Amino acid sequence: MEHREATVTPLTEIHSLKAEEWEAYREIRLRSLSQDPEAFGSTFEKENAFPADFWQTRVADGARLPHAHPIVARTGDAWVGLSWGWIHPDEPTIAHLFQMWVAPEARGRGVARMLVDSVIEWARVRGAAKLLLGVTVGDTPARRLYERVGFVPDGSPIPLRPGGELLEQPMVLRLEPTDRLPRSRS
After folding, report:
1. Are β-strands 167-174 and 158-159 bridged in parallel, bridged antiparallel, or unpaired?
2. Which own/partner contact pairs does 3-12 have at CB distance under 8 Å and 24+ positions apart?
3. What is the dihedral sign for C-alpha 135, 96, 103, 45?
4. pLDDT of residue 178
5. Residue 24: inside a domain, yes or no?
6. Contacts for 106 with CB less than 8 Å, ≥ 6 apart
7. d(Cα 168, Cα 166) in Å, to the nearest integer?
8. Among candidate residues 36, 97, 120, 105, the one with its CA nearest the CA of residue 75
9. 94-102 and 130-136 as β-strands: parallel, antiparallel, unpaired?
10. CATH number of the domain that 131 lies in?
């Protein structure tokens, strides 16, 4: 009888960014912009030019501010996904989902859903009534994911970038009051 070794696929977990992880965040953010340039309002060229202190501040602020939720998906030691939740302090009932991206090697395994679910739960805990995002217009896996979760179009498509031809569709997920947890006093 032949002996075969079983291969074990490491589990993917969601991880909140820590201030000291700014270099790894920079790397995955730039990778997302490079590999899927039509998915983001920003560009690789623009963000690649940011100095180190910009990245340090972005991640440090995200890690410490209660109205920010920067997260990554990790499989073993590899960062395979990214997402950032944000609630503007002047609009505490409106949450936003930005920078959503999953590496090609991790797609089709539920990683995107884990990231979106994490931001939804974070928004509910903070008392948000709705979660907003923009997705590139078209029948894309991202758009289908958002629709499965319950997002619906919110207005007409708008330019993804100023002066560009690509459009993004604003979408909204209403977080019903019965679904929300009590707002924290932070």
Report:
1. antiparallel
2. 9/75, 10/75, 10/76, 11/75, 12/73, 12/74, 12/75, 12/80, 12/81, 12/106, 12/109, 12/110, 12/111, 12/114
3. positive
4. 42
5. yes
6. 12, 73, 75, 80, 81
7. 7
8. 105
9. parallel
10. 3.40.630.30
Name the pTM for this structure: 0.88
Q: Provide the CA 45 distance to its chain's centre, in angstroms.
A: 20
Indicate the SS3 state at residue 168: strand
Q: Report d(CA 103, CA 114) in Å as an integer.
A: 14
Q: Is residue 106 assigned to a domain?
A: yes
Range of 105's domain? Answer: 12-179
Does residue 83 carry a pLDDT above 90? Answer: yes
What is the average per-residue pLDDT within 146-164? 94
**pLDDT over 50 at 179, yes or no:** no
Give the total number of structural domains in the chain. Answer: 1
In a domain, 2, yes or no: no
Residue 167 domain-assigned? yes
User: DSSP secondary structure string, 40-77?
Assistant: -SS-HHHHHTS-HHHHHHHHHHHHH-TTEEEEEEEETT
Contact 132, 97 (CB under 8 A): yes
Amino acid code (one letter) for 19: A
